[in-house]
Amino acid sequence: MLVIYLSLNNRKLGEEEAADRLEEIDENGDGNISWKEYLKDSFSMEEENEKNELIDFDSYDEEKEMIKSDKELFNAADLNKDGVLDSKEYVLFYSPEEHPEMLPIVLEHTLRERDTNHNGEIDYAEYIGETGKDRSREWLIEEKDRFDHLDENKDGLLVGNEVLNWVVPNSETIAKDEVDHLFVSTDEDHDDRLSYLEILSNYDTFVGSEATDYGDHLQNINHFIDEL
């Protein structure tokens, strides 16, 4: 029950964060985000081809690539193609990996970044990237095991959903890890249940957890205990 609760809570937190960002970016206060408003807020540019004097010359190409990727995400999230993102569409843009309709563009961006031979697949060398050559043998073995686990058809390559399983976080797995952490840290009598006293005596741990919305849900402790 707590895993399901935390999964839903994480999604709610993402939506709240997106709403806060929309309000910050929405310069004209119409409840929508235009590409121009986003560009001005995130890159201090009025037009995407503008050369910002504050950008270091060496990072200009990287900046242009970021703008290109963000515009593709913006267009994908603009479901009704009216040129602006409303509050629901902005959630898709803000956290694309959490929404199935955005996964094709997430996959496209991942391949653009990591598929160095441009064959539409990720091999092990591309998977570990340039930093792999500086890693320890133990790290390489661990990552090879992870790669092999992701490679469902065992052809030595990650394709399509195999790539998405790598780059898109599984909200249920994340929630389960957080719940496991809470129980290991606070289930003092090891009965696989959290009592009222265990929660109170480990208050700092719960305040630092997404499971309680960083302590907010402890304002209604009885409701939270019901979830346990």
Automatic annotation (TrEMBL):
Keywords: Calcium. One of its GO terms (molecular function) is calcium ion binding. Transmembrane segments: none annotated. Residues 13-48, 65-100 form the EF-hand domain. SUPFAM superfamilies: EF-hand (SSF47473). InterPro entries: EF-hand-dom_pair, EF_Hand_1_Ca_BS, EF_hand_dom. This is Reticulocalbin-2. The gene is RCN2.
